[in-house]
Structure formats: structure tokens, C-alpha cells
Amino acid sequence: MMPRAGEVVSLTQAASVQFAAPVLFRVIRVHDRPTYEGWVWLDGYELDGAGAAVQRRSVFVQLSGLRPRGGAKPVAPSRTPV
What we know:
β2 and β3 form a beta hairpin. The chain has one domain. With about 80 residues, the protein is mostly beta strands. The chain has no helices and 5 strands. The C terminus is likely disordered. The two termini are about 15 Å apart.
């Protein structure tokens, strides 16, 4: 599962230990630079409770720890028809 530009995800400690408190994050770019298996660099904006961008950030996170806005389930992987 790879997030796409424009998606809003919740970053928690499941994504990286740096997120002791959950952070809403709007993805603007997924870097394609090589990194550890299952990890990715994202550029985006930290959002406030109203959904307004408050700070631009680059974060290094585990893909399996990304949660859709609301945070209940992991972001669903994209499916391609076979």
C-alpha cells in the first residue's frame, strides 16, 4: 500500500516512534529514493483539527502503520484488475 498525493492519513506510533500523539498528515509527495523494506519518505502538511495545513514536513514512516483519516483501519492497498 502506497499513499497518493492528496490523501490524508493519521500518523501514530505504528508509523514511527516520533508520533507519540497522532498527527493528521496530507501527503503531497512520496519519495522514490531507496530505503528500508516497508518504509518510505513522505512530504506533506501536518493538519490542525479543522483540516488546515499548519506545517510542511518530510517524514520517514512504515507503510503498514499509516491509517486513513479517522484512524480505525490501515490504508487499503490499491487493487489492479487481473
